[in-house]
Amino acid sequence: MNGTTHPRLPARRGGGSGTWWSKAVLRAVEEAAFGEKELRAGRALARAGAVGAITVTEGGAVAAVTEGQDAFTVEVTVPVLAEADAAAFTELVASESGRIGALLAGQLPHALVESVEEVGVELLPYGGELGSACTCEAWLDPCPHALAVLTQLAWLIQADPFVLTHLRGLSRERVLRDLHQLRQPAGEPADAAGSGGDPSATDDVDDLVVAEDAAVRAARLLRLESPFDSW
Prior knowledge:
By secondary structure, the protein is an alpha+beta fold. It has helices spanning 20-32, 36-47, 83-95, 99-104, 110-118, 144-159, 162-167, 172-183, 199-225; strands at residues 3-6, 54-57, 60-67, 70-77, 131-134.
């Protein structure tokens, strides 16, 4: 199971405007909370920078949360997509030009999510799908520490929708690999490119690599100019 560790987010002020998809995730967090008191406590921990580095894997994430002199380990879970649903998602990304470029640039096109939902695939989670476990003694599920991690996950998803797809079982690497395989002519081995395979397939993959590199560089520049506490 491949994991991606995202560095600790600094403390931030206010809630920020957010994007439509990060707001959808935050609504799911609100739905999962036991009550307003716990939700406020979780948001306060998230904004205070009390959540450590978050490691995202297929179906979940793990992070440490500090509160006063104590530290707790939180695990949150999100159901992964079935193989047929994952394949449908990839095919819909490939069905229109610009969709993969948008994802690589940190955007989640509304039309893509609508198309995904039309075929019965739920990409954005709802409250009942968000599971959690924490080493604290709170009887609530999710506890404020888990709500803090879920809140910061929404912030990460705002900057990079691949965090959301990774939680659903589709890491950035898998999406790019599956798109490559879709572009392979029927019956041609996946590694045929460069050894007599279709040159256009090679060009497509090269274009994706170049686009990804450009998107990563642009995202880094944006983060330098617009730190998280301005969201």
